[in-house]
Design a protein that fits this description.
Number of helices of chain A: 14
Helix content of chain A: 25-40%
Shape of chain A: globular
CATH superfamily of the largest domain in chain A: Type I PLP-dependent aspartate aminotransferase-like (Major domain)
Largest interface: C-D, 112 and 114 residues
Distance between the termini of chain A: 20 Å
Oligomer: homotetramer
């Protein structure tokens, strides 16, 4: 599609080699609206990546935009540390009324800093403080963040190696179906906990994603999550659900763990919580765990008030009834049906997912990268995931229309065909 | 001043006990402009805290606001991961042209995630990877952040204890004048490095703040910084300057290390870099250190494009000539002169600082807290710092007018008098 | 049996509470010969514990005693650091000629200090240095020693807690049959190694006991050991066999791994290597692994020359032909047959073992302790093992005669009956 | 002296490259008596090394030899785990009556395993358990052993690197006079402890040698030791004196800390405690620290009964009165006087020491190795110490006669002259 090569020189000469997505999408984006991005040469891209799940309501959602502009125009507090502000109060009240209360969730809310890894770091600190133990259980192919605490419970060997120090105090356990159903759930995990001779340092907590996005769209069954919650309870470990990517409606309900009927001790929320792609994160926990001292964890940007404004607007706009959840499940069926057709057409292809998060994988592990590259040429933004980048990951905005979905799925089908 | 007690119940019941600043300032802020905040009951507060140094150009600076509104209105990319965007390009070009090139600084730019601790984590990772060593030297009373990597090189025992695991791989050395001039600079540090029997794990890097803000406004002399840079060079350690709070003009020049004439290997920048209080951070390093693999460190909000927009506007507005630096040094003299008068009037009081960062301290360590409390009642926002909160910290916006400065300094003098 | 209570006051008042075996055997031993100990009140005890496997040739074996007395009388070097001595040369030559060469084992010999944990520490250091990785795989219910390096790969939670620091860099895997045959061997271990997203730090080595003595007499099948050796080879990990308790003929052949036909990269040897109960240990490794620098690991008592003398005498006396192995297997059958009878007589009892190491276990986990207590009263020394002390452990000297074995096994049977 | 080259092939081909002392002394030793060793070619060597301080009463001391032979001949218990035995009782009673009681020392006695590093590991574990903290303070150029716990508090970079993992939880402080008197004692250490912002993890304990043997014969002044004891008391840290090499009379009194008049909380003892060069070690601690659980730390050879026999004999023979201490101080003066003469004769030479431990050092750091090599050729065994092997270390047996001392000191003087 691209005719003239964009001039990327300032990026390639001045920006660090660490940059990544921009390598797969060699153009310069300028504007975005809803499900589409536009580059400066006027090309249009349908976005099935949605800021890695940070843009569940689409780019520059007009309702949220209006609230944001109004707030900025009237000189509402922008940077608020952890001061009490009217914007923060409005967010807290909405979160209480729209999200927590209807779900009977009695959580304290912490603003740990505006990124997901801030939330994970605070969750791990709190769990360790509450239980007085260092060890945390994570799962194979987990992704929880890039600061040292979060990285220690993240699976990817390349990212772990970046730490430059041995990552310790974390032990991986098999995620659901990791061993292809050849072993009973939790047989190894529970035996380690029961046996005082097992050599496992008794864990403070277990941290889990209900669907592993970066790990390859691995979907935990509700019964597996219930089994895990039960195991944690019986062995005095806290259960932390990292809902940074799968929360805020990505799988259908606001929290991804609702379907399983479990109530985690600690929940991390970020990415789409601001609704507008602005940095914001929450750590939620049961009130009896709130043993923090004032300022024991903090962060300069934990009071990003413009994000509170769009976050409150998003909650009030989309979550006051069950409509959004229903719509997401419906659109998910549309995606699933298209993937089913692709898989039927291509031997070695398979798919998995839930709500509006789906993965398409091939026996040939290099195929996913090729599919995404071709899709980009065809004007569709898609990324891979999984330890070998072997999965095409679909994360369209929840507000993507059936027509847009259909358009993107057709491009995907074509990209698959054209990479045979 | 406050007549009716504000209703803080949603904060006290729903928000975690970890909140801190809001406890000292028990009101609900609503709007802000320049050097002033306004609470919802219509009270006005002169701000000598400036978002802990994140608002060097004042609250909702009108020039930056205009740029931000324009960008949002035209649906510029909001959330950009590390995609190439026109907003990012504009920022990079401004940073190159306005900051790096005139200072002959040849740095690669990394967007490590939008908070200071993201920048520090990435700096430590890179140093460890480059040198193949785990150990980092930090300084007494350093503050570098709250995620585990940054916390391990932070001095405060209360915050360190929050980690819930033993913090290792870091060794503190005495900051400038820590031992009251009773020992030669670096005598201990250098001996440890020279002696293969010393027991010090050979460090990958040293991380330092030129002025320790959280640590109590401890100002390193330029010759001490030069000695440190020389020590690092001679002993094959990287020098990391954490300029998160002291950079962006806080001490006068754009980078706080310019006065000493040193060129750190790695620099962390955050807080005021966006200019508008929006989350944004940079890690700068010499090109030969750029051995990152693509995506080896990342973060969802590392492409906070609205922040790039205000950042570029701030650079173009304030740093195209030497005016800002000159102004800051002049205003600093105004502050110093007022503090000198206060110290002369109160036995046991002393002060220290540089540019627009100053500390006022008392022999009675509880006094600073009392002064800040009284100042709040008088409509002035001030915070304490130091290991025992024994220092009144002055961080007015760089754009504070002489008249505003004068007003605040008079309130401060009164608060000191009234807490005798 | 004991009529008068022995006066243990000097032990109970002066010695630390850490003492353990002496609590179960409340008498004062004075002399010992062959399979018997004698207390100072003239009582006789048949020893089925043999110094926890350090006295494979019985107490004060007369052949070794003669060699030792001769050496001491002629003022042979006693304490030799790592000097070359005639006694060390004689041992090395015997070890080469009697043990290594006939088994086609090409190992370098290291004297790491005279205790088992010295050998394990040196083995782990060497593996980490060779592979440049920190992580070590150990097995559930492993016991490798009490210094920090060894303790980190030991399973017992009580002993681990004694470290006072979090024990890291080790990960436990399921020992043979740990999950009751409900999962394929190594399914979890291998998947973790294959999957770069698993979160397992790539290990330098795996350390294993072929029979776990302290862990409860858990016997690894030869095919499991072969599978493990194969896994290590395929995944570039060193295989360390800790043969401290099971080597020196305890299971039949000199090395316990011979039956499986594997050749470990590193072997630790201690306990019965001196033959006389004197402190001595060896670390054996393939020549290509010998990348130690001179003195990189050392220890004051690594040249315990009297132990070299008895060790050489033991090798020459017992291992010049296959007689000892044959005899051990025969005596083992005698033990097994007696245990079979006991198990048949008592529901809930079961047994396991190999060569001259056996375990008798009961569904009632408290029973083993009761049986050992009763056995002591009847003049038989037995200890428990296993994470809950639920296993009666039989470790008679290999030189125990059929008649002595028969005597002890009858006492054991009686003790079992009398604790019903 | 050596005419024919000894055949060292079995050592060079079969033993690991880790061997060290044997490289400097390329001969094969066979017998030893008192202050002399004899190689198998009939050469005689005067020993000024004494098993690195393990042979304070000379080689194969006839009194201890008699006791040992009697014990072995009568089949006394050889290997006793931690069983109560008559030999152990006799040792405990002697230790109580001859050592502890006359010095008013109320210590519990632990047998932690028979090597120095076992004792250090147990001391560190206990300190951490008692205080509930991980961090230990050690000193520059300390040597405490080679297992991981001990190595982490040892200074030598080469030996530390052998660990293969980053050694953490230890922080070095300057030993007495480390900074050449240019700083007040403990100025840095105490400031770190007082300042809650210093970044030092609060230590459980400080471990110190009163004279650093391996570290270069660095002698702590009594007032420095008293200052340290006082600092520990005031800051709630345990004081551990590692008296493994300097105890048992090496510096004059039985414990090297007696001269300073301090009472450590924990003391480690090994090397010369058995008196005969047999492996044995003790950990002593104040009764209120004895919170060990039974078996929480153990070791197979912790009941090396032959060593208890020679240990008791040594105490009864040499320590029943003050004669030994007096004699050591006298012989020390003889050594000092000879070293003074050498230093006077050679510019750049200096000496230091206490009792019967002395160091001779040269400005040319390579000189010490040359001196020791020449001394060996002249029939005198000497070793170097210090981080660069820059110190000739003199550790003659305490029983060395004035004539033998004189002989050795003359050889030393000649070796120094001949290496000019």
């Amino acid at each position: 599609m691209t005719i003239t090569q964009p001039d990327l020189s300032v990026f390639t000469t001045l920006e660090s080699e660490v940059r990544s997505y921009c390598r797969a999408w060699p153009t310069i984006f300028d504007r975005a609206q809803g499900s589409y991005l536009y580059d400066e040469d006027g090309h249009t891209y349908l976005d099935f990546f949605a800021g890695a799940g940070s843009l569940n309501y689409g780019h520059n959602n007009p309702v949220l935009k209006r609230a944001l502009l109004d707030y900025l125009e009237r000189d509402g507090i922008t940077h608020g540390l952890d001061m009490s502000t009217t914007a923060k109060r409005a967010f807290l009240e909405s979160f209480q009324n729209v999200i927590l209360r209807p779900r009977d969730l009695d959580y304290k809310v912490m603003f740990p800093g505006p990124t997901g890894t801030n939330a994970v770091e605070s969750a791990l600190k709190l769990a360790r403080k509450v239980k007085g133990r260092e060890s945390i259980i994570s799962f194979t192919n987990a992704f929880h963040g890039m600061s040292l605490g979060s990285l220690a419970v993240t699976g990817n060997a390349f990212k772990r190696a970046g730490a430059g120090i041995p990552l310790v105090h974390g032990t991986p356990m098999p995620f659901d179906d990791y061993l292809d159903g050849r072993t009973p759930d939790f047989i190894w995990f529970e035996r380690l906990l029961e046996d005082t001779g097992s050599g496992l340092n008794k864990p403070a907590a277990t941290i889990v994603e209900t669907v592993q996005g970066e790990g390859g769209i691995n979907v935990a069954r509700p019964e597996w999550l219930r089994g895990l919650a039960d195991l944690c309870r019986r062995h005095d470990m806290l259960l932390i659900v990292d809902d940074i990517q799968m929360g805020c409606g990505r799988t259908g309900p606001f929290f991804s763990f609702e379907e399983a009927g479990i109530v985690p001790d600690i929940v991390t929320v970020s990415k789409s919580i601001s609704g507008y792609g602005l940095p914001m994160a929450l750590t939620l926990f049961k009130p009896e765990l709130d043993i923090w001292g004032p300022g024991e964890h903090n962060g300069t940007f934990r009071g990003n008030n413009p994000a509170f404004v769009t976050a409150a607007a998003a909650l009030e706009t989309y979550w006051n009834d069950g409509q959004m959840e229903k719509q997401t499940l419906g659109r998910g069926e549309q995606v699933e049906s298209a993937l089913r057709a692709i898989a039927a057409e291509h031997s070695g292809a398979s798919y998995r997912g839930r709500g509006m998060v789906w993965g398409l994988t091939f026996e040939d592990t290099a195929r996913a990268t090729a599919v995404c590259r071709r899709a980009f040429e065809l004007g569709l933004l898609l990324e891979t995931s999984g330890p070998q980048s072997e999965v095409v990951k679909l994360l369209p905005a929840l507000t993507t229309t059936p027509e847009e979905l259909d358009e993107g799925l057709r491009v995907l089908a074509r990209a698959v065909r054209e990479t045979d």
